[in-house]
Amino acid sequence: MSARLEAEHLYKVFGRREEQAVERLRAGADREELRADGTTAAVIDASFTVEPGQIFVVMGLSGSGKSTLLRMLNGLLEPTAGHVRFDGQDLTALSARDLRAVRANKISMVFQHFALFPHRSVVENAAYGLEVQGVAKAERLARATEALELCGLKGWEKSWPDELSGGMQQRVGLARALATDADLLLMDESFSALDPLIRRDMQDQLLELQTELKKTIVFITHDLNEAMRLGDRVAVMRDGRIVQIGTAEDILVRPADDYVASFTQDVDRSRVLTAAAVMDKDVRGDEADCGCESGCETATPDTPFTELCAISARLSHPVAVLDAQRQLVGVVPNRRLISFLGEEAARA
Ligand SMILES: Nc1ncnc2c1ncn2[C@@H]1O[C@H](COP(=O)(O)OP(=O)(O)OP(=O)(O)O)[C@@H](O)[C@H]1O
Ligand SMILES: [Mg+2]
To answer: In its keyword annotation, does this UniProt entry include Nucleotide-binding (predicted)?
Structure first.
């Protein structure tokens, strides 16, 4: 599978003598050293790939460089060094005109505060991206209506933006991005302004849409729980650098350093972890041979932790974890689950 989107040693420096600053960063200088000469190293040596249909989350504290990174991915900002490839095409090498065409047709952005046009109806707002693409009116209204329905806004087409709650307005923003058929969505803190329940609802909706639409999504957030829920892969940024890239589980169970570990200490692990993270992999073939009647319950490596507890409670022996070929890949003894919950409770 070839990568949909690829960032290769990306740097963005704001200020004087940018090239020279990149040289210093390559030699190991950090942000602080450059700041002394009034130069900001917003993004330092960022490399990653995003596969088709993946949600790639970029997480980090305020000022860590997330938005700057995102703006380089669609060419709104030109990297000081490095390359961005989208479907194998080097965005950094495109003319301004070609870049605009890629941005209008293939990439959609959803921001934190989605500014709707107040004097346009909801459906006209959702159709805006198509209007920019030059799609004829009847078609764009039909496609926007469809996108609104996907986002749970059926029946609101003719309303005005100020008749909608903040969460609903944000859905219009999402519908606008979906209506264009762009298959790369760049979402910068798109749900951060929403209150917690609506935010969770939007996350669920995005995940549900994603099972059907399979867009390639780069999602920026400073919220760890959101990152863990949404990300197929998660990159953690600190002071301009990506300090770890991995699955939510990698980040939680195998943090690259103390910074990542401290960042993740408040997460409810039992909601993220799966059997693969807690199982004992050191198994002998006969251990699955529990002596039960056939049909005894088993788990797979991606069985969620909570379900694993439920299965374990119904069995009088460890839970066998089987792969797709029904081969035993691990076992989870009851005490493993209990000690894990104990650690969680101690952490809280
Ligand atoms: N146009 C600019 N000129 C100068 N410095 C900039 C510019 N844009 C961003 N920066 C600086 O680059 C650094 C990274 O900013 P960026 O907006 O990418 O962070 P962020 O992770 O998105 O933060 P937040 O979570 O607050 O949105 C910051 O120190 C910021 O001040
Ligand atoms: Mg930002």
So the answer is: yes
Q: Which ligand has the nearest atom to the CA of 237?
A: 1
What are the residues whose beta carbon lies below 5 Å from ligand 2 (ion)? 67
Residues 284-335 have pLDDT tens digits of 655 555 666 667 899 998 898 889 999 999 988 899 999 888 888 999 998 8
Pocket test for ligand 1, best of 10, 14, 237 (most atoms within 8 A of CB): 14
- What is residue 1's predicted lDDT score, i.e. its pLDDT? 52
Position of tokens 């070839």? Answer: 2
Strand pairing partners for 48?
7
Q: Say what the pTM is.
A: 0.83
3-state secondary structure 27-90: CCCCHHHHHCCCCEEEEEEEEEEECCCCEEEEEECCCCCHHHHHHHHCCCCCCCEEEEEECCEE
Decide if 279 contacts 301 (C-beta within 8 A).
yes
Q: Which amino acid is at 62?
A: S
Residue-wise pLDDT tens digits, 254-281: 899 999 988 888 777 777 788 888 888 8
The finding on whether 62 has its CB within 6 A of some atom of ligand 1 is yes
Q: Confidence band (pLDDT; 50, 70, 90) for 342?
A: confident
Q: What is the CA radius of gyration of the chain?
A: 23
Task: Compute, in angstroms, the gap from residue 61 CA to the centroid of ligand 1.
Answer: 11
* Shortest-distance Cα residue to atom 4 of ligand 1: 14
